[in-house]
Each structure stands twice: as structure tokens, then as C-alpha cells.
């Protein structure tokens, strides 16, 4: 087939192709008159090669590839950022540089759920946990710490379990006493923590809760570097009942949802972490009065709802809620990008599912959706 004069003219009319474009397409041997018609082309010009078929990928339809979320970026890095130690951002929105891993075994502690690789913290927090283990066991107050989650190697949001724990200044310690032997790796995955709650869920079960837990929490709260200790309201109530001679430590013990299998130590921003965003200081009140009563009401089991009336029209179904967009690297402080890539780490570029398969990976049943706001305001 040849590209004749007629074909070219017809093409120009049908396709309304601008003449300059048409001229380019026709190529050598064709000229255009001032009237815009195509002059005779004496040379037969082959058709341009057919364009390759367009692959049906998302990019061709203007759909952006899903970028990895902050959870995926920080949940897949296996080692700490080899730069100066600092907590970056807020407890519930930040990352951690120069983290240290708490040894999985030490004098007076054992780390649980090793598969999670969350025994990394700011070096000052790691020292604090070691100190708590040493001092409580030396004083025979507690048989040893079973340490739960601290942070990921470079902090950041996690795929399961927590809103905070992002900047290496939070540590969970089980309220179950440490056995007097070294647990196997398997046991550290399979063993369950014991709930401290009584059946009424507003008081402690005295069969499992006792002086040991009280002394352990009191000692943790008494360290000046510790800004808060988070426990379930029922545990706070038990602590309020035995404050000891100097009750000043009690104001640091803050009631929260969950936290009846473990308690949570939160350290204040270390002095050299200039981009660490501090939480407001706890008040002078011991929190054992009205505030605790309100919390106990919130966690008390709700009375069963009255049977629905027969003639009542069916409630209009609520419109489906859109899922909250996941935190991305752009939501975290700028410095977290440096922390993520430090030491030549290449983070994944595509969205990939990261799953925590360890036991009890989901948040506890009565855990509230902890938000940055709730963390800053009332805890
Ligand atoms: Zn915690």
C-alpha cells in the first residue's frame, strides 16, 4: 500500500489534523501550498510503523501506584539508624535515630515476642529499663521484667498494637512476674500475659495482682526521667488505695484503656533530642478522685440494652465510614526521611502488606482509638 495524494488529502479533512503535523507525518517529498492543499508527492511514502500496543497498567490510566505507608517503611527496616541518638517528633507521630536494642536477656529481664523486633529504644530508655530490672530484683520487690514492645529499630508507626511507641521513649512491661528460668524463643511467642482485672472490670483480681505489681509500678513512676506510667483505671484505683508515705508518684500514673496485661512507661524527651515534641506535664493532682471515677464509668461493662420495641421503625443504616488514610512518610517530621535512609538503607518503593503474625498482635479488646489529641490532652 502506498500513501497517495488522495489518501493524504482525505486524511487531512477527516482527522482535522493541523497541517504542520500532517506535513511532518507525510515526510519528505511533500510540500504544502499557501492554500493549505497537499502538493503532489512524486515519491511513495510508506506508512509510519504501527505504534506498539499500550500496556494496560495503572500508570496509563493516570492512576498513581500506591506508595508505601509509614508503617510499611518503618516496619520493614531491621536495624537502627547509625547516626546520633535522638527521638524525633511526638510519641504518636515520629521516629527514632541511633536506637539501641535491649538485650533479649539480662540481669532481671527477658524480652518477649522476639519475632516483632521491637526491643529497640532510645539508649536512655534502654538504660532505664535495665535499671528498673536491676533495682526491683535487687530489692526483692519483683522477680524480673518480662519486656513487651519498646519501638521498631527506627521507630515510626507499627503495623499492630500501638499508636505511640514511635520515638523510642515508650516501653511496655508485663504485669506477669518473670519465671525463674530462661524462656525459650517459642515460649516468648506463645506465652500469654495474665489480665489483672476482676470480673467486674473496674477492680483488680487480687489472686494475680498484689504488692509486687504495686512496687514495680511505684518504682518506675518514681524515676525523674519517667513522665508518665499508663495503666488501666482499675489498676490506678488499686494503686490509689495504697499510696505509701509519699504519694507524689501517683500523679504520674495515668489511667488509659487497655493496659491491664502490661503497664506502659513513658520517658520525657531527652535533653539532646531537640526535635522531640514534649507531652504536657502531668498535673499536681494525684488523679485518684473525680477523674478516676469518670474513667471507671467509661470502662465499666454497659448494662444490656432494653429489648427493641416492636413498632419502632428500623433504624436507618449508618453510611459506611471511609477508612482513615494511613500515615505516610510525608506525615512524619522531615528528619524521619533521613533516619529511614541512614546507613544506606533502601526502603521499599511500592506498597506491600506487612503483617504481624505474633500472638495477640491486635490491640486489646477495650483499647480506645488513641489519637494524638487524646494523648496530649488527658493522659
Ligand atoms: Zn504501650
Automatic annotation (TrEMBL):
Known InterPro entries for this protein? Peptidase_M74, Zn_M74/Hedgehog-like
- Tell me the keywords, alphabetical order: Hydrolase, Metal-binding, Metalloprotease, Periplasm, Protease, Signal, Zinc
Spell out the molecular function terms from Gene Ontology.
metal ion binding; metallopeptidase activity; serine-type endopeptidase activity
Q: Where is the composition biased (Low complexity)?
A: 361-373
Q: Where do the record's region annotations for Disordered lie? A: 299-379
Q: Which positions make up the signal peptide?
A: none
- Show the Pfam families listed in the entry: Peptidase_M74
Give the protein name, as stated in the record: Peptidase U6
Q: In Gene Ontology terms, what is a biological process of this protein?
A: proteolysis
Q: Superkingdom of the source? A: Bacteria
GO cellular component terms, alphabetically, are: outer membrane-bounded periplasmic space
Amino acid at each position: 500500500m502506498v500513501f497517495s495524494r488522495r489518501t493524504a488529502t482525505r486524511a487531512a479533512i477527516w482527522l482535522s489534523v493541523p497541517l504542520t503535523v500532517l506535513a511532518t507525518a507525510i515526510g519528505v517529498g511533500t510540500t504544502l501550498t499557501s492554500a493549505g492543499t497537499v502538493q503532489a508527492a512524486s515519491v511513495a511514502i510508506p506508512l509510519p510503523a504501527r505504534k506498539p500496543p499500550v500496556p494496560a497498567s495503572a500508570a496509563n490510566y493516570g492512576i498513581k501506584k500506591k506508595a508505601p505507608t509509614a508503617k510499611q517503611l518503618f516496619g520493614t527496616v531491621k536495624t537502627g539508624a547509625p547516626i546520633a541518638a535522638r527521638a524525633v517528633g511526638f510519641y504518636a507521630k515520629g521516629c527514632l535515630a541511633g536506637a539501641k536494642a535491649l538485650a533479649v536477656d539480662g540481669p532481671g529481664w527477658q524480652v518477649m515476642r522476639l519475632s516483632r523486633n521491637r526491643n529497640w529504644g532510645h539508649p536512655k530508655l534502654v538504660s532505664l529499663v535495665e535499671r528498673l530490672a536491676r533495682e526491683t530484683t535487687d530489692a526483692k520487690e519483683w522477680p524480673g521484667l518480662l519486656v513487651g514492645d519498646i519501638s521498631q529499630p527506627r521507630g515510626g508507626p507499627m503495623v499492630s498494637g500501638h499508636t505511640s511507641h514511635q520515638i523510642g521513649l515508650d516501653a511496655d512491661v508485663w504485669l506477669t512476674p518473670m519465671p525463674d528460668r530462661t524462656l525459650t524463643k517459642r515460649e516468648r511467642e506463645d506465652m500469654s500475659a495474665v489480665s489483672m482485672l476482676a470480673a467486674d472490670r473496674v477492680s483488680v483480681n487480687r489472686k494475680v495482682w498484689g504488692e509486687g505489681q504495686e512496687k514495680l509500678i511505684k518504682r518506675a513512676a518514681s524515676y525523674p526521667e519517667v513522665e508518665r506510667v499508663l495503666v488501666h483505671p482499675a489498676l490506678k484505683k488499686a494503686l490509689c488505695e495504697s499510696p505509701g508515705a509519699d504519694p507524689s508518684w501517683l500523679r504520674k500514673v495515668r489511667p488509659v484503656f487497655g493496659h491491664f496485661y502490661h503497664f506502659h512507661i513513658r520517658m520525657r524527651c531527652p535533653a539532646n533530642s531537640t526535635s522531640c515534641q514534649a507531652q504536657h506535664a502531668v498535673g499536681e493532682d494525684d488523679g485518684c478522685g473525680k477523674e478516676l471515677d469518670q474513667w471507671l464509668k467509661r470502662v465499666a461493662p454497659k448494662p444490656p440494652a432494653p429489648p427493641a420495641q416492636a413498632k419502632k421503625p428500623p433504624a436507618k443504616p449508618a453510611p459506611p465510614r471511609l477508612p482513615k488514610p494511613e500515615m505516610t512518610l510525608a506525615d512524619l517530621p522531615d528528619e524521619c526521611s533521613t533516619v529511614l535512609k541512614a546507613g544506606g538503607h533502601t526502603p521499599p518503593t511500592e506498597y506491600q502488606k506487612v503483617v504481624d503474625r505474633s500472638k495477640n498482635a491486635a490491640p486489646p479488646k477495650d483499647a480506645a482509638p488513641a489519637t494524638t489529641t487524646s494523648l496530649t490532652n488527658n493522659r
